[in-house]
Amino acid sequence: MPGPIDYSKLRILPDFDTVEWWAATRQRKYLVRQCKACGHKWFPPTFPACAKCASMEVAWFETAGKGTIYSYVVVVQPIVGAFIGTVPYVVAIIELDDCKEADGRVTRVAGVMIDEESEVAIGLPCEVVYEETNDPKIVMPRWKINGTASGVWRFTE
Amino acid sequence: MGALTDKYCIVGVGETPHMRPSNRTTLSMACEAVSKALADAGLKPGDVDGMTSYQAGDSTTSPHVATALGMRLNYAVDILGGGSSGEALVANAIGLIEAGYCETMVIFRSMNGRSGRRMGGQTPGGPVPVANAEGDAQFNIGWGWTTPAQRFGMSAMRYLHDTGCTTKAFAEIAVAHRYHATLNPKAIHRSPITIEDHQKSRWIVKPFRLLDCCQETDVSVAIIVTSRERAYDLRHPPVFIMGGYARTLTDSPQWNYSRESLHYVAGNYGWKRSFGMAGISHKDVDFVSCYDAFTFTTLIQLEANGFCGRGEACPGWAEGKHSYDRQAGCRQLRKADICYGMGWGWENMASCLVLRGMAA
After folding, report:
1. Which one of B55, B169, B203, B276 is least enclosed by Cβ atoms within 10 Å?
2. Looking at per-residue confidence, does B219 or B63 come out higher?
């Protein structure tokens, strides 16, 4: 298991576009942005317009927080103070199961895996879990492998 | 030939030494680089009437440098941007001179990239004690994913998955780059390395090892752009600009993880336009200078710019398929960041010196 993240060394500062997203994580809900006009979904929510149709009529879509690992890295040298005791840890990009669109687009999100490096592989299913921080206003989503799959790919060097 | 092909050129290049640390201000370094570029071109400060630079809130500005050197400019602007800004400013200079806003323009980058503001949120001494995550950083600092190595690593991992390549290809690039650095007295790292040295070097962020990464450097680089007519009586053969593209990418991977392919770069979208402007094809090219922030970025840019197909840039480095050796005929690659010193891609502009040598 990666070591604990020292959230006392992180200060998350929500803004007008993201305050509702962080509020939702406090209720253990994982949101992505959704366009009211065309239905396109995206992440992160820092972008206030739909990149598919340019509408600014945007809403939230509550995902089930389940997906498949698309790529990952294993951070060995820590850069941010909060993660000095966490290394090595895996950051993954995850394709969300319930955000596949008719034209083939899939919404991807990123996050820190709970699992250790040897357990992570591209193609494995995972789900969001929530971690409380020292700041009561901030609950941090993390990701956890929740099953097996065939044809997975793992970096073994 | 395009309408502007060979109409504008680079006539001077100036660089400070590569320092770690510089113990100097970015203004001091910029003044040195600009003065050296002027001297290289055979120009005096009063001969230049335009100045531009790019930065990330980490550097001095054109008005400061012009004031320090006593230059009265007709056009000065500084932009925010990263490693793809050098070519954007060359294109801006062409447009400004063509439109009559100025006649001769100096472009610089000055940064304490090692001793001052480091990329990814580190202090000069190491990890930042307490990180504020606002704006874009809300969705990357929180998951400990901030540096270019960590971001490009995500692309590289997917690339290895998609193509079946291994990090042996990265090793071959590192070895080739280092070999050529041994020939360059200005390079920071000049001792030859082997494939084994690369494979045994410590992990930074898998799939990147230490020897995949470029050198954080304190440096300033300046070049001078002017018209063909103005260039004739200057000191060196001009290096002509045939075409280009800049910041072609719409979906930056640091903001949009959902883009078509994580390892697409600007070249995937821009190369056809650039070659069209120049009126040439790949077989006409015998020198390539890639931004090598990481070994992997050299590799993907050869593919992105159409020199080979997807996954094809991987094998062949050890066999000299992609060589610096002009005797070998085809393509030359100038190594810059990984062994030479890193100025956010601006070292590639200094490749003009190589082109000038080839023309002479």
Report:
1. B276
2. B63
| CB-based contact B171:B201 (threshold 8 Å) | no
Structural domain count of chain B = 2
Q: Is the dihedral of CA A9, A15, A19, A25 positive or negative?
A: negative
**Could you tell me if B95 and B32 lie in one domain?**
yes
How many beta carbons lie within 10 A of that of residue A54, not counting itself? 10
Interface test with B, best of A9, A63, A71, A133 (most B CBs within 10 A): A71
Find the mean pLDDT for residues B238-257: 74
State the average pLDDT over residues A122-133.
Answer: 97
* Segment B303-354, tens digit of pLDDT: 888 888 888 777 655 455 444 433 222 333 444 445 555 555 565 666 666 6
CB-CB under 8 Å, B131 with A81: yes
Can you tell me the distance from the alpha carbon of B298 to that of A47, in angstroms, rounded to the nearest whole number?
30
Structural domain for A114, as ranges: 7-145
Q: Judge whether A136 lies within some domain.
A: yes
Give dist(CA B223, CA B346) in Å, integer: 10
ipTM for the predicted complex: 0.96
Quick check: is A100 in a domain? Answer: yes
**Dihedral (C-alpha) B208, B212, B217, B221: value to the nearest 10 degrees?**
-120
Q: Name chain B contacts of A51, Cβ cutoff 8 Å.
A: 251, 256
Contact yes or no for B173/B162 (Cβ under 8 A): no
Angle, alpha carbons B184-B189-B194 (nearest 5°) = 100
**To the nearest whole angstrom, how far is the Cα of A153 from the nearest Cα of chain B?**
7
Domain CATH for B13: 3.40.47.10
Strand B126-127 relative to strand B122-123, pairing:
antiparallel
Between vectors from CA A27 to CA A58 and to CA B135, what angle results, nearest 5°?
50
For residue A96, is it within any domain? yes
Looking at the structure, do residues B170 and B36 belong to the same domain, yes or no? Answer: no
Looking at the structure of chain A, the number of domains it has is: 1
Is B229 in the same domain as B303? no
Nearest to A11 among B120, B132, B155 (CB): B132
**pLDDT value of position B330:** 32
Please name the amino acid found at residue A7: Y
Q: Kindly state whether residue B47 falls inside one of the protein's structural domains.
A: yes
Domain that holds residue B221: 1-119+216-242
Is the dihedral angle over the CA atoms B341, B345, B346, B350 positive or is it negative?
Answer: positive
CA distance to partner chain A, nearest, from residue B118 (Å): 10
In chain A, the percentage of residues whose pLDDT exceeds 90 is 93
